[in-house]
């Protein structure tokens, strides 16, 4: 969807937060404002260890001022509840168009 709407982004670019290094799924520059957003997709939320790691990652973002729904876009899915393309398109439209 980012390609479709010609939204500039980098995939899994290095992000240093405090003493930690993260690789957000997408680092996105808003085409009009230049503001930077990070997009994390948590795709294995039905797995306990993955959920624990996802929560730790979210806590790291928040404790460093990168707040969900402000600078951090998050999407989630499980085996039984996959992320659908319509949801992704609506999110891209909401944040960047």
Give an overview in words:
- With 97 residues, the protein is α+β, with helices and mostly antiparallel strands.
- It has 2 helices and 6 strands.
- It has helices at residues 48-63, 85-96, and strands at residues 9-11, 15-17, 20-22, 26-29, 36-42, 72-76.
- Strand 5, helix 1 (48-63) and strand 6 (72-76) form a beta-alpha-beta unit.
- It is globular.
- The mean pLDDT is 95.
Can you lay out the helices and strands and say which pair or pack?
Blueprint: E1 9-11, E2 15-17, E3 20-22, E4 26-29, E5 36-42, H1 48-63, E6 72-76, H2 85-96
Parallel strand pairs: 5-6
Antiparallel strand pairs: 1-4, 2-3, 4-5
In short:
With 97 residues, the chain is an alpha+beta fold.
Supply database-style keywords.
97 residues, 4-stranded mixed beta sheet, two-stranded antiparallel sheet, 2 helices, globular
* Helix share bin: 25-40%
Elements, N to C (H/E): EEEEEHEH
Oligomeric composition of the shown chains: single chain
> What is the topology, as strand order, of the major beta sheet?
1-4-5-6
Computed over alpha carbons, the radius of gyration is: 14 Å
The number of distinct β-strands equals 6
Structural class comes to alpha+beta
Give the count of helical stretches: 2
């Amino acid at each position: 969807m980012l390609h479709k709407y010609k939204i500039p982004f980098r995939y899994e670019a290095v992000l240093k937060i405090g003493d930690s290094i993260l690789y957000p799924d997408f680092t996105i520059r808003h085409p009009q404002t230049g503001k930077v957003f990070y997009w994390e997709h948590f795709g294995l939320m039905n797995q306990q260890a993955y959920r624990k790691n996802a929560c730790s990652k979210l806590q790291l973002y928040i404790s460093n001022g990168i707040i969900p729904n402000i600078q951090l876009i998050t999407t989630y899915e499980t085996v039984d509840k996959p992320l659908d393309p319509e949801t992704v398109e609506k999110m891209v439209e909401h944040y960047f168009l």
